[in-house]
Design brief:
This protein is mainly beta and 112 residues long. The chain is built from no helices and eleven strands. Strands 2, 4, 5, 6, 9, 10 and 11 form a seven-stranded mixed β-sheet that branches. A four-stranded antiparallel β-sheet has the order 1-3-8-7, with no helix packed on it.
Length: 112
Amino acid sequence: QVQLVESGGGLAQPGGSLRLSCAASGFTFNTYAMSWARQAPGKGLEWVAGIYSDSSDTFYADSVKDRFTISRDNAKNTLYLQMNSLKPEDTAVYYCKARQYWGQGTQVTVSS
């Protein structure tokens, strides 16, 4: 069955960095476009970034552009999100997504 397992979340200070990973299994990873989404406390789901199956193009929400970088390693069936210059408003549960499949999420908290 399809599994998406996120990791790498935690507590970071404003201006700091974190790198999220999403280990995928149960489907042909290198044929799926992938994305990250997040949900802040008391708010709706927000799409964050996307990447084509062959990494030929990437896309970002305006709120994270120039701070976050999405990437993938198809040999390792893994999706990444490098988050730099973190802000308190980046605090959220972050999910990786493959079409209709979602991971369980990883908590990111940005606070001093």
